[in-house]
Protein: SNARE associated Golgi protein
Organism: Bifidobacterium apri
Amino acid sequence: MGFIDFLIRLLKDPRAAIASWIAMGVAPTLGFIFLIVFIETGVVFFPFLPGDSLLFAAGCFAAADATTGKAALPLNLLLPVVWAAPVIGDQCNYFIGHFFGRRIIESGKVKAMTPERLARTEGMIDKWGPLAVFLGRFFPFIRTFMPFISGISGMKWRRFTPFSVLGGLTWSTLFTLLGYFFGGIPVVQDNFELVIVAILLISLTPTFVGLVKAKTGKRRGRAAEPARHAADTAPSEVAGVADEAAADNANVAAATVKNAGMLPNDLSGADVLSAQAIAAATVKDAADLSEATPHN
């Protein structure tokens, strides 16, 4: 329960969590920040950890305090830590996917990683290549799954690593400096929880949009399936009817030829007379008739 409570407090208010770490010293604070960012990126089972908001809050503590003029976290120490954590995490997650990914998927321990989502993500990697690794860094959940699936899909390490490093450095620097430059503004200080919620919503918006588009496309595909089936079936049915008609015509033609060929054979036993035979018979009959008739 202690670990779960720790995660809930971290998700709810990362600034308060970092403040409690600072009370233990700078080194433990940097260690906790490194660990959280590394686990979110490097362990496929923890995609829900607050990477964006944690970096923003850490950047706030790196800025000089308005009262004392001192910073709770030195920026020159914070930046190398937040640079190293996502880069090393990506490498760890890539090799986990490369060597154990298929077994993890088949075990079903990662409920969000279904075979269908795996196939779609691999298709995206095939389409966009290593650029998907860089872009995926800026989206929660996706930045956890992307190196894992890159390892499963067989993407070469030398192609994966440059875009992974570039994405990790850009992402960590961006959110840390946003907190550093804007975290000290009074409006942000007074509404820090709302700012964190806004960061989460902005980060999750592309994911939600992608899910909606995927569901809409699936529904459209299901609706178009009967029409496609009918379009595919109609030509085959027409071809079948045409074949049957052609077969009937062929049968009729064959029967006609057969009958035409049988006609001489059927009449071969009949008395078929030529014109000369008919004339000779007529003369003979006339002669017989004249002989049979009595003369007066």
About this structure: The chain has one domain: 2-218.
